[in-house]
Amino acid sequence: VVTVEDNIAPIVITQDILIDLDDNGEASITADQIDAGSSDNCGLESLVLDITDFTSADVGENTVTLTVTDTSGNVSSETAIVTIGDDTVPTVLTQDITVALDENGEASITAAEIDAGSTDNTGIESLVLDVTEFDCSMIGENTVTLTVTDTSGNEATGTAIVTVEDNLAPTVLTQDITVQLDANGEVSVTADQIDNGSTDNCGIESLVLDVTEFDCSNVGANTVTLTVTDVNGNEFSSSAVVTVEDNIAPAVITQDILIDLDGNGEASITADQIDNGSSDNCGLESLVLDITDFTSADVGENTVTLTVTDTSGNVSTETAIVSIGDNAAPTVLTQDITVELDENGVASITAAEIDAGSTDNTEVESLTLDVTTFDCSNVGVNTVTLTVTDVNGNESSETATVTVEDNTEPTVVTQDITLELDENGEANITADQIDNGSSDNCGIESLVLDTTDFDCSNVGANTVTLTVTDVNGNEFSSAAVVTVEDNIAPIVITQDILVDLDDNGEASITADQIDAGSSDNCGLESLVLDITDFTSADVGENTVTLTVTDVNGNVSTETAIVTVGDNIPPVVITQDITVELDENGEAIITAAEIDAGSTDNTEVESLTLDVTTFDCSNVGVNTVTLTVTDVNGNESSETATVTVEDNTEPTVVTQDITLELDENGEVSVTAAEIDNGSTDNCSIESLVLDVTEFDCSNVGANTVTLTVTDVNGNESSLTAIVTVEDNMAPAVITQDILIDLDDNGEASITADQIDAGSSDNCGLESLVLDITDFTSADVGENTVTLTVTDTSGNVSTETA
User: Fold this and answer.
1) Highest taxon of the source (predicted)?
2) Is residue 411 domain-resident?
């Protein structure tokens, strides 16, 4: 039975439409209005819309779905846009309002305040004003526009009047101030000086003070009134205090005067005598002097102070000079004296030591000498002058004699010194070397030593005496110690020598053999060597040190070379050895492995081989040479045999592989394909596989063995898996055939009728047709497919 089905869904085609609401705000549509030519291969059964009725709530775009069903029950759907329209504009009603600016000079309104009941047939969406903010620049009437928008986006506008008023008076802030009268007793103030930041929401027009001029009659506190008027005529007033001060001090002018003491030695003055025309801007109150009476104690210039006070209590002062006179000179009396210079060669005197009772009719003020200090240049008789001055500056003078003497001995300071004898064993000194800063108050005339020359016999401490005489004949002596040293080291002269070891391998030398004429300025005490005995360990150059000491213990050293000889070569004994190459094909030997007990009469220094490393190229017998060197450089050599062997088997590394049979059902493999990097320490000679050929009977996993042999005959084996696959699909050959229906209107065929000689490299497993039975419904050409599967499961198809 061939069952025929219609599973193809209808093709739905829709169109967007625009409709308007009716007078009731409603609209309806049908599916035919949305359908734009939907179709089906077998015919349509129905067209259905999900939404057909609309109201004002649907104004705008609305998505509807058209569902189409065909005669076989297949269903398809598609959407479309139904746009609902509303064109009626709102009715706008407005009202005028008045607003007052706030303290910031601002006012705000809302659309609701201007709206007087605007309406719309569907509903109002928004009310919007073009101006909502007002400031001082908008005082008076302002026209605003109210825009009303309905829910469908239709809008209408209406105007209204907003009257803006400023009714706030200014805020008046005052400050009390203090002002100073000027030199004329006058002062003026301005409203700005009284204003302390008065403000207004819209701006100040003017500041006015009721009083601005002040003079001396206003000194003290005065109340003034500040009136502030804003730009809109609002005004306010506030008071403040202006304190007027007279702080200008009087101008004091004085004059110096000269007066004489009266018969009682007294004098008096008044302030008017000192005043020379003092004045003040507001008038003087008083003139006062600090000193008005004088006595003989005031003879000379006296400073007085005139204090002037004005009517406001301001005070100024100024000084003047009042001169008092006295002209009687003192009576001077003197006496001669003798003084001694001190340890510094200095002597001082005072006027009182020369004065013998000088007097004055009033009082002596001072006694002054023309010379008060004396030094060594003044030894002997000196004339000085005494000047007496009274308290009023009158003075008289008289001379006297001062005799200066120097009786102080010199101070002798010595120092102990150390002398070094020269290369001749001699040394000399002077008095200046012993002197350590001797001094005299008036100066040293001479320094004299009792001993000045020394030689080798004086080595050690020697006492000497220094005598110092000053310029005035005073003298003194003191002792010092002169230590004589011989610090010149001996001159050491050495010579190199050559000695041979005796039968016992020993040798000895003396200091005299090394000495070549050493000498000293005061004589030699001893010659000593640091090394005098040698053994075979000393063969070669040996450095010895000759130490020379003189009679005063000075020491010098010098080196020399003592060469010790040895000429006997070592006895070399060798042995043959066998070594195996390691995994890297290498072998290393040491001289100690070849040495079989070599000896030397002294000591063996080194064992050396000419060849120590071997590789694969050295497999077999190799001759090496052992060289033995003793500690003295004598050497001998002997050969030995090193047999190198390679006993390391190759390392076999295999890999599993997969092979595909060819069109003949055959495949071959080589040892190189199985080898995965086999190695040997020396190198590989051959790779051999036990199985290399495969056919259809081997499809699947096959074990093979890889044998690796190296160049030295060592071999190893390892297995691997060779997977044989048959991936070649059968070759399908078909033929078209013609068959007739039987009496029942039926016909059947087999795969063999369609097959025209299909084949495979390993054989066919099956032939299968997709259609083998036909009815009257199939009359005509029918395409069938022949599927061929081989014995390995590979499949190919072909139609007929």
Assistant:
1) Bacteria
2) no
Is residue 739 domain-resident?
A: no
Spell out where 274-359 has E strands: 284-289, 293-294, 300-310, 315-324, 337-340, 346-348
* Token pair for 51: 């939404």
By three-state DSSP, how is residue 742 classified?
coil
Task: Give the H/E segment covering residue 514.
Answer: helix 511-514
512-545 burial: b if 16+ Cβ within 10 Å, else e: ebbbeebebbbeeeebebeeeebebebbeeeebe
pLDDT in tens, 747-797: 999 999 999 999 999 989 999 999 999 998 998 899 999 999 999 999 999
- Please report whether residue 556 resides in a domain: yes
- Residue 635 resides in a domain: yes
d(CA 278, CA 253): 5
Single out the residue of 681, 689, 732, 730 nearest to residue 710, CA to CA.
681
Structure tokens at 618: 């050295």
Out of 405, 436, 451, a domain closes at: 405
Regarding pTM above 0.70, the answer is no
Q: What is the domain extent for residue 398?
A: 337-405
Residue that finishes a domain, picked among 516, 533, 565: 565
Q: Which residue, among 359, 353, 363, 368, has the nearest Cα to 391 in the 3D structure?
A: 363
Please provide the DSSP assignment of 446-478 as one string.
EEEES--EEEGGG-EEEEEEEEEEETTS-EEEE
Task: Tell me how many domains the chain contains.
Answer: 10
Contact between residue 532 and residue 507 where contact means Cβ atoms under 8 Å apart: no
CATH of the domain at 282: 2.60.40
- CB-based contacts of 504: which residues, under 8 Å, 6+ apart? none
